Amino acid sequence: MKFLPGDPRRVGQEPDYRFTLANERTFLAWVRTSLALTAGGLGAVSLLPDFYGSEFLGVLLLVLSFATAATSYRRWALNEAAMRLAQPLPPSRLPQLMAIGTALVAFVAAALFVIDSA
After folding, report:
1. Nearest-10 Cα torsion for 78, 73, 33, 24
2. 46 inside domain
3. C-alpha span between 102 and 34 (Å, rounded)
């Protein structure tokens, strides 16, 4: 299985356009999430210079942003191909990655806040 699948619109038959549009909206939501994480990471680094660990927090957010953006296209393409081939949608670890990543960012931010307050 390729990490970066090709254009899924070249296989199978055109599904109901509503499913294709829903899949595209989901992809765009992941991209928006990635952009928000990027803004948060850059903001942490540049707007919190006196906050202990702001660089670490910013880099953590940027890594989560990269992982989200990098996997969102793959998820879209695999879902699109599955719909076109009338197959079940493939499982995805992206929601699990986001949940664990967000929890980790929250924990690190809270710990850094406590350390900075002391």
Report:
1. -70
2. yes
3. 12
Gyration radius of the chain's alpha carbons? 18
Confirm whether pTM is higher than 0.70: yes
| 8 located within any domain | no
Q: How many domains does the chain have?
A: 1
Nearest to 101 by CA among 61, 70, 74: 61
CA nearest to 79, candidates 87, 71, 68, 69: 87
| Domain presence at residue 30 | yes
CA separation for the pair 91, 103 (Å, rounded): 22
Percent of the chain with pLDDT over 70: 97
Take residue 65 and report the two structure tokens written for it: 């942003």
Contacts of 87 (CB under 8 A, 6+ apart): none
Q: Residue 56 is part of which domain span?
A: 15-117
